TrEMBL record:
Residues 177-197 are annotated as: Disordered. It comes from Streptomyces violaceorubidus. Residues 127-173 form the RNA polymerase sigma factor 70 region 4 type domain. Keywords: Sigma factor, Transcription, Transcription regulation. This is Sigma-70 family RNA polymerase sigma factor. Gene3D superfamilies: 1.10.1740.10, Winged helix-like DNA-binding domain superfamily/Winged helix DNA-binding domain.
Length: 197
């Protein structure tokens, strides 16, 4: 229990420092989460420049609204990932809608399918990054190296039952990305952190 409270204690202190306007706190937060934010933004927007802009927007929002984060609702990492996801989906939807209005290719239904797919992909990336290392290692062996559970067990030095358990749990976590549809929120995030995208 105390071990789980350590990150939340850091989260609470960071939120308090941001609320006091400590620029150094924003720098620490950026150093810790910029790659997560940029990666999620890029996964949704599929555009490096747009992901750069969105990363700045997310950290500007955090700086301007530090009280919007409530440590009792979950980790700061989850809140920031949820903000990123929400902003990225809004930006994608706005950009694609504007292109449709200008007479670009596609339909409103295709736009929603694109948004849904980008949403699910971003959520899956977040889930894989957040899952415990043993589950991630098992999935990587099975998916990228095309190992079955017996080979995975041998590679990881665990029993076959343990390899099956890790693969099953990892796949169950990944399945939540698809189940979330267009309004996903990272695992452990309360509904108010996810909301409709």
């Amino acid at each position: 229990m105390a071990k789980r409270d350590v990150p939340l204690r850091w989260d609470r202190k960071m939120q308090q420092r941001l609320a006091r306007g400590e620029a150094a706190a924003l720098g620490e937060l950026y150093d810790r989460f910029a790659s997560l934010v940029h990666g999620l933004a890029h996964r949704v927007l599929d555009d490096e420049r747009a992901a750069d802009h969105l990363t700045r927007d997310v950290f500007a929002h955090v700086w301007e609204h530090p009280d919007a984060y409530d440590p009792r609702q979950g980790p700061l990492r989850t809140w920031i990932a949820t903000l990123t996801h929400r902003f990225a989906v809004q930006r994608l939807r706005a950009t694609e809608t504007a292109a449709l209005v200008r007479g670009g290719p596609g339909t409103a239904e295709e736009l929603e399918t694109k948004v849904r797919r980008a949403s699910v992909a971003a959520r899956a990336d977040y889930i894989v990054q957040s899952m415990p290392a043993p589950l991630r290692a098992a999935l990587e062996l099975a998916y990228f190296q095309r190992r079955d559970y017996r080979q995975t067990a041998a590679d990881l030095g665990v029993t076959e039952d343990e390899a099956r358990r890790r693969l099953r749990l990892g796949l169950q976590l990944l399945a939540t990305a698809r189940d979330a549809g267009t309004a996903p929120h990272p695992p452990g995030a309360p509904p108010e952190y996810g909301g409709a995208a």
